[in-house]
Amino acid sequence: MTQRREIAFLDLPRQRARLGEALTRRVDAVMAHCKFVLGPEVTELEERLAAYAGARHAIGVSSGTDALLAVLMGEGIGPGDAVFLPAFTYTATAEIVLLLGAVPVFVDVDARTFQIDPAHLEARIAATLRDGQWRPRAIIGVDLFGQPAPWDELKIIADRHKLTLVDDCAQAFGGSYKGRKLGREARATTLSFFPSKPLGGYGDGGAILTDDEGLASLYRSLRSHGEGQNRYDVQRIGLNARLDTLQAAVLLAKLDAFDAELARREAIARAYDAGLPEIIQTPQRVAGAQSAWAIYSILLPTMALRDSLQSWLKAHGIPSVVYYPKPLHRQPAYASYHNNEIPLPVSEKLGEIILSLPLHPELTDDEVRYIIDTTLEWSKERKT
Ligand SMILES: *Cc1c(COP(=O)(O)O)cnc(C)c1O
Fold first, then answer.
1. Tell me: the pLDDT tens digits for 238-268?
2. Hey, which of 194, 247, 297 would you mutate to test ligand 1's pocket, going by the most ligand atoms within 8 Å of its Cβ?
3. Gap between the Cα atoms of 294 and 145, Å rounded
4. Where is the signal peptide, in residue numbers (predicted)?
5. Are 263 and 288 members of one domain?
6. In this predicted model, what pLDDT tens digit does every residue of 100-110 receive, in sequence order?
7. 48 CA distance to ligand 1 middle (Å)
C-alpha cells in the first residue's frame, strides 16, 4: 500500500506560487495606472488571444456565459426561435437561449467522444421543421472537456439549413481541430476564463473570437450597454459585460505559461491512458484533434463500479467529479422544454458511468503515479 496523499482537483495556490513575480508585476501595473475598466491590458489580451487562435478579432467579456449571450443577441435570436445544442453540457450553453425567449432543442452526444452527435442533430432539425412551432436559427457546438466538436459535420448541417453556427469553446481554448487551433470553426467562438478552465483567470472572465469585423464591433457595443460612437450614444439594448482590466492582467501572465501548461496536461493524460487498469475506459481522442484537457473523463462498466471507484479514491485522498450527473433535459429548469418521448440515451447513460480524475498542470509525477496506483489497487481489491 502506497503512502496516503491529499490530491487537489484544482490547485490554485500552487499555480499562484508557480506564476510568482510575473503575475504580481502585471497586477501591480494595473494598480498603478488605475484604468480598471477597459484598460490597456484588455486590448493587449484581445490582441494576444486573437493571434493565438489565428482569429481576426477577440473581444473580452465578463464571462463565458455573457459571451454566448452576446453572440445570440447579435444574431437577434428571440421568441419563436429554436437553438440546437447538446444535452450533455454545462447549463450555461442552454440558459442563455431561454434568457432570450428562444427554446433549446437538446441533441444527444457520441458515446465515446461525448461530443454532439451530427446524425441526431439532423434528426432533431428535421423534426423541428416538421413540427413547425419553432423556427430553427442556430447550432451551438460545444467542445466538451477540451476536445473539439465534429466541426466539419456541423458546418455542412448549418449550411444546409442556413443556421448560425456558434462554438462554445469554454472548455477547449488551446485545443485544436485538424491542425488548426480552435477559434475559427464557427461564426463566433466563445471562451471562458473561469478559474478551472484551461486558460483560467482569478475570477470570472470570457471572450468572443470572430473573423468578421462587423460582428466584432457589434460585440464591443453589446458588451457596453449597446453603445455606439460614445458612451451616451445608445444604439441598441446591450449588457454590462466587459472583461475587467485586472482579469486581463492575470490572463496575460497566464498566457505566457499556457503552452507549457497544455503540454503538461497532455503528458498527464498520456500517463493515465497508459497506466489505468483495464476495467477503466480512457477517453477516446477525437480524430485529428489535440485536446486542451480541461477535464479527463473515464467510463466504468456500471454505476455501482463508478460509485465504488469514486469512494475508494476519496478514501485515499483523491477527489473526483461527475461531469455531468444529469443531462440538461432532465434538469428541473429545462424539463418542460423537452418531450420525454424523445430519448437521449447516451446523455442519460453517461451521467451514471462517467468520472473525472484530477488533471491540472500542478500535479507532480509522483501524484499522478499515486492516482494511477490507487486505481490499480481498487481494481485488484474488487477481484479478491
Ligand atoms: C464554463 C462553461 C461555460 C460558462 O462559462 P462561465 O465563464 O462560467 O460563464 C459555458 N459553456 C461551457 C461548456 C462551460 O464549461
1. 999 999 999 999 999 999 999 999 999 999 9
2. 194
3. 5
4. none
5. yes
6. 999 999 999 99
7. 21
